[in-house]
Specification:
Largest sheet: 7 strands, mixed
Protein name: Beta-lactamase
EC number: 3.5.2.6
Low-confidence stretches: 1-28
Order of helices and strands: HHHEEEEHEHHEHEEEEEHEEHHHHHHHH
Shape: elongated
CATH class of the largest domain: Alpha Beta
CATH superfamily of the largest domain: Metallo-beta-lactamase domain
Number of strands: 13
GO biological process, one term: dodecyl sulfate metabolic process
Structural class: alpha/beta
Pfam family, one: Alkyl_sulf_dimr
Number of helices: 16
Helix content: 25-40%
CATH topology of the largest domain: Metallo-beta-lactamase, Chain A
GO molecular function: beta-lactamase activity; linear primary-alkylsulfatase activity; protein dimerization activity
Length: 465
């Protein structure tokens, strides 16, 4: 039944995000992103309006292509040419966006600007050049976005597939929180062209194709990020430091620590410009000076609040597990449509801040040298009155819908030589799908379903890693 619920084809529902999300996030279980299955589906369906494929005119000479891949690409029309901001993941998706742009201008591309070096923003540049040699702008630290040691690239690639649901069928997919579920990734990176103009750390103000344009350094989701300001049009291009979801302060695919405090400060800096239009790195532009400025201020406050609460808790001696369930968004921000946890989550952010500032150790001597998993599982079984009783408890948890507890018990049983490991695996699969059905956070949902599929197919080892 649960699998059927996950596999049900999601029909797009045109609903205003503010209407469908009101009070839904605050009804989650234990501060996590779990709600009733029907509510989770309605929320994810509503979020899909944020990346419907279209070209949006945000000023007389500024156009934003949304939904042609995961990220946005923008075109600014100047006197004798156009400027492209971000170029999607690969040349095929970029070419489709550029074709749509060409309905508004056939002028040559004079410049390409990369807001940061994530692959979904830089991989399609070749589709825009048309034999020209445009200036390509990047920051001094351009290329430092990933920040994860290549030594762990193998496992990171596997976790990336799960987070984004790249191996899920169309029937199992919803979306990626800030992007469509299905995108053309076969040529990712094949259109990349390296920057040939470096934006200094002090920023840059210049004129391109008759357009006054400003480059401002703004580290956040990546260390090499910048945002772009058009002073005459009062349009601000935020890159991935803003999109309509609680920000991904930590990505479950695996990332190095993202400087959360710098991220908050960079968004606050953006708010000082009081833009008439805010163009995110993903999702739809926000129009209106009051709306755009308020969104940026709220975003900065939300990030800063999570950081401050976590740091205060750390200094009070609290560990990451306790804090992940205790830290909350300020009440006035919880139902803001651009802060619903479709992509990032507060608990993940709290854990990332903790480990980023202090490392893995929580200060409790009990956790300095914990028992190895097999021995701990044996002790848990003894406490339960034997493996048979532990198995019964696992099955009972599943039947009661206590899916997280069922998962944790199945992970103990997998280590026991006298356990029914096939049954433990089956329970874990069902519990994962039970959690997925209740998830409105897209990466969590995708990861649960992807992992369940891998378990069911036998692709994972006997230890289920």
């Amino acid at each position: 039944m649960l699998r059927k619920l996950i596999a049900t084809r999601l029909t797009f529902i045109v609903l205003l995000t503010t209407g469908i999300t009101t009070n839904m996030a605050t009804n989650s279980v234990d501060g996590q992103t779990q709600v009733e299955p029907k509510t989770a589906l309605r929320m994810l369906n509503a979020q899909q309006q944020q990346f419907q494929q279209k070209v949006v005119k945000v000023a007389d000479n500024v156009y934003v292509a949304v939904g042609f891949h995961g990220a946005n690409t923008s075109m600014i029309v100047g006197d004798d040419g156009v400027i492209i901001i971000d170029t999607l993941k690969g040349p095929s998706s970029a070419a489709k966006a550029f074709e749509a742009f060409r309905k508004h201008s056939d002028k040559p591309v004079k410049a390409i600007i990369y807001t940061h070096s994530y692959g979904d923003h830089i991989g399609g540049a070749s589709a825009f050049v048309e034999g020209e040699t445009p200036d390509i702008y990047g920051t001094e630290s351009f290329g430092s976005a990933e920040g994860v040691n290549k030594a762990v690239s193998t496992v990171k690639a596997k976790r990336n597939l799960r987070q984004f649901g790249r191996d899920l069928s169309a029937l199992e997919s919803t979306n990626r929180g800030v992007a469509p579920a299905m995108t053309a990734d076969h040529d990712g990176g094949k259109g990349y062209l390296p920057p040939n103009v470096t934006v200094p750390n002090s920023g840059l103000k210049t004129t391109i194709a008759g357009v006054e344009i400003e480059f401002h350094i703004g580290p956040g989701e990546t260390d090499d990020a910048m945002f772009i300001w058009l002073p005459k049009q009062q349009v601000l291009f935020a890159g991935d430091n803003f999109y309509s979801s609680f920000p991904n302060l930590y990505a479950i695919r695996g990332t190095a620590y993202r400087d959360v405090l710098s991220w908050s400060e960079s968004v606050a800096k953006m708010a000082e410009f009081e833009p008439r239009v805010l163009v995110p790195g993903h999702t739809m532009p926000i129009r209106g000076k009051e709306q755009a400025t308020t969104a940026l201020k709220d975003y900065s406050e939300a990030i800063g609040s999570i950081y401050k609460q976590t740091v205060n808790g750390i200094n009070a001696g609290k560990g990451p597990d306790q804090l992940a369930h205790a830290v909350k968004l300020p009440e006035r921000l919880r139902d803001k449509p651009y802060l619903i946890e479709y992509y990032g989550t507060v608990p993940h952010a709290v854990r990332a801040i903790y480990s980023g500032l202090l490392g893995w150790y929580d200060g409790n001597p009990t956790t300095l040298s914990p028992l190895q998993p097999k021995i701990k599982a044996q002790k848990i079984a003894e406490l339960a009155g034997g493996t048979k009783n532990l198995t019964s408890q696992m099955q009972a948890a599943l039947e009661k819908g206590e899916f997280q507890w069922a998962l944790e018990l199945s992970d103990h049983l997998k280590w026991l030589d006298d356990a029914d490991r096939k049954l433990a695996r089956k329970v874990k699969i069902e519990a994962l799908r039970g959690l997925a059905a209740r998830e409105y956070n897209a990466p969590n949902r995708n990861y649960y379903v992807s992992y369940a599929n891998e378990l069911e197919s036998g692709r994972l080892s006997e230890l289920w890693f």
